[in-house]
Design brief:
The complex is a heterodimer of chains A (243) and B (122). Chain A contains twelve helices and no strands. With 243 residues, chain A is mostly helical. The radius of gyration of chain A is 20 Å and the shape is globular. With 122 residues, chain B is an all-alpha fold. Chain B folds into two domains: 63 residues; 52 residues. Chain B is extended, with a radius of gyration of 21 Å. Classes of the chains: A mainly alpha (243), B mainly alpha (122).
Chain lengths: 243, 122
């Protein structure tokens, strides 16, 4: 009988079904903890779900490729979810038109701060070139950041990890930071959170209010476009400074 | 729900095709989002610009946006050694640039909207 169990495990642990299910179970547990903690920003669901999965993968000695063969079905939904952000965005259409100028200036300021400070601080503390190149696109959403990192010579999957760490960090600190800066308008805070911390920041913003979520979606979308266009050329003249 | 998902995928696919044909640096899903937004603006004259099914599916997807980042986040296991080796530049760069970008964006936006509403009051 134990042999049967071992055989079943060997079979299951290599199927997409098992790791897809585990990803959803880990998320359900994380989401349950998050709600139990009164949606406290420190109980970030991405952070908890990743920690649970890392423990399970470590215990079962499963390589990431095996895990991803199942988890890719969830990962794939990032595409349609990005498209779906157009809907809350449209809900704020009237406000967007009135704020176009300020939003654009704030976007450029925030986007440049995110890219340049990551590269220069990392360089100053002795980060290696591939690491710096993977850090540069860290404020934009995963698929965009991976594409940019590949183009400028970083590691795409390391960039994805930096992106997610940034998103969690932004989601955890945003409300404390805004209280401290006396930012009271949800539109202002949401936009800043979206520019700096992409989809995970946006997910957090939707928990606070619909307005904050919509402006976060806008910040995330616009910064994705701006970073994709500007970072490759920006790195052209930054690279010599980093040698 | 399937109809809504089909529409979302069609917009993403159109975005992907445009990105490749025109060699745009922006990824397909972001172009798809812009196209869907434009469609809604154009449909804005009609009684119900957003079809109900689309609104529901989008809201379900966005409510659980966090879930979609879990597979890529788990990829951290591939880089544990690199992160241990370069923990200082990585962690300080992440903190400084994330908090810095939020602060700069929020402050610029607040100053610019403040001036405007101040002018309205005057």
């Amino acid at each position: 009988m134990p042999e049967r169990i071992t055989q079943t495990w060997v079979y299951l642990s290599a199927t997409p079904l098992f790791w897809l299910t585990m990803t959803l179970v880990a998320y359900q547990i994380a989401h349950w903890i998050y709600r139990r903690c009164g949606a406290h920003p420190l109980a970030n669901p991405v952070l908890i779900a990743v920690a649970l999965l890392l423990t399970l993968l470590q215990l079962t000695q499963t390589p990431y490729d095996t895990y991803f063969s199942g988890a890719q079905f969830v990962h794939f939904l990032l595409g349609p979810a990005t498209v779906a952000l157009a809907i809350p965005l449209y809900g704020q259409f009237q406000r967007l038109v009135g704020l176009a100028g300020p939003l654009l200036l704030a976007l450029i300021g925030g986007s440049l701060t995110a890219m340049l400070s990551a590269v220069f601080v990392g360089h100053w503390l002795g980060g290696s070139i591939p690491t710096l190149l993977s850090l540069a696109p860290k404020s934009v959403t995963t698929p965009i950041a991976m594409g940019i990192a590949e183009r400028i010579g970083g590691h795409p999957s390391l960039a994805a990890v930096m992106v997610i760490a940034t998103g969690i960090l932004g989601a955890i600190t945003a409300q404390t930071l805004f209280r401290w800066l006396k930012v009271k308008d949800d539109a202002v805070g949401g936009f800043a959170l979206g520019v700096a911390a992409h989809g995970i920041g946006t997910a957090r913003a939707f928990q606070v209010s619909e307005t904050m979520g919509a402006f976060a979606a806008l910040g995330m979308g616009l910064n994705g476009i701006l970073t994709a266009i500007s970072l490759p050329s920006l790195m052209q003249w930054l690279k010599p400074l980093l040698q | 729900m399937i109809a809504a998902l089909t529409w979302l995928l069609l917009y993403q696919l159109t975005g992907e095709i445009l990105a490749h044909v025109l060699a745009l640096p922006v990824p397909g899903p972001v172009i798809g989002m812009a196209l869907l937004f434009l469609t809604l603006v154009v449909r804005g004259q009609s009684e119900r610009p957003i079809p109900k099914a689309l609104e529901q599916t989008a809201s379900t997807l966005l409510q659980h946006l966090s879930l979609l980042f879990v597979p890529a986040g788990t990829g951290v296991m591939l880089y544990l050694q690199l992160i241990v080796d370069e923990w200082l530049p990585i962690s300080v760069a992440l903190v400084v640039s994330t908090l810095g970008a939020m602060t700069v964006t929020a402050l610029i936006l607040r100053v610019m909207t403040h001036k405007k509403s101040g002018a309205d009051h005057a």
